[in-house]
Amino acid sequence: GHVYTAIGDYPNALASHKQCVLLAKQGKEELSEARELGNMGAVYIAMGDFENAVQCHEQHLRIAKALGNKREEARAYSNLGSAYHYHRNFDKAMSYHNHVLELAQELEEKPI
């Protein structure tokens, strides 16, 4: 999916990431499923499809929270912040990015 995204072939990028989500679900690999949903959200952003992007990133966040994976939760919040930034909803973007900062401080790490 990443190669297709890099060359701007978004339909194939989405198809690839969707296949990965299905495989992750079948294998009960929830962390992989969450990450692939985040990847799908990034492709939707590149396509200008804000609603589907947010939906994917919210699913990513739900799974990360359910797993108790703070690092992945921070990634999902960051992705949501970026989605709202691109949609020019700066207040909501800032709110999500503040969650990232809080989690980074909690994890006592700088890079998320």
TrEMBL record:
Gene3D superfamilies attached to this UniProt entry: Tetratricopeptide repeat domain
Transmembrane intervals: none
Renumbered ranges of TPR repeats: 34-67, 74-107
Keywords: TPR repeat
Cross-referenced SMART domains: TPR
InterPro entries: TPR-like_helical_dom_sf, TPR_rpt
Family annotation (PROSITE patterns): TPR
Superkingdom in the source lineage: Eukaryota
Protein name: Uncharacterized protein
Organism: Micrurus lemniscatus lemniscatus
